[in-house]
Amino acid sequence: xxxxxxxxxxxxxxxxxxxxxxxxxxxxxxxxxxxxxxxxxxxxxxxxxxxxxxxxxxxxxxxxxxxxxxxxxxxxxxxxxxxxxxxxxxxxxxxxxxxxxxxxxxxxxxxxxxxxxxxxxxxxxxxxxxxxxxxxxxxxxxxxxxxxxxxxxxxxxxxxxxxxxxx
Length: 167
Prior knowledge:
Blueprint: H1 29-54, H2 59-65, E1 70-77, E2 82-84, H3 86-100, E3 101-116, E4 119-132, E5 139-152, E6 155-165
Parallel strand pairs: 1-6
Antiparallel strand pairs: 1-2, 3-4, 4-5, 5-6
């Protein structure tokens, strides 16, 4: 490997990276499928966050949309005890979140997604802004989601979600 000119950002001579593929070497069908799966899972998690954030504004809409995100036998742990089944998770998100907060905003980052056939895992760094009903301040929670996903006839769905507060 040859050395490049000094990096303008740090003045260090970084080694040139050799790529394992040439530009003429197309991606395999398996690689394309895996990337498609990862993007589908990222989109599903983004929809989850948007629907949960909006659940207190329109509980009826949340009740129709949130079930499509989970498999029937999904489990969830938001640090308040284990929720078993899609209905219990949707109830928690619509009733508990809706009754306690009037503002909720997820900002998810750095997805680490591993796909293995029809199952996958995902880890996300998360900042959540919450204003509880009657409060004048907005609280910030920092944590991680540790999720499991299952491919169904209707696409990827969440089979397990676990929130861990880290800050």
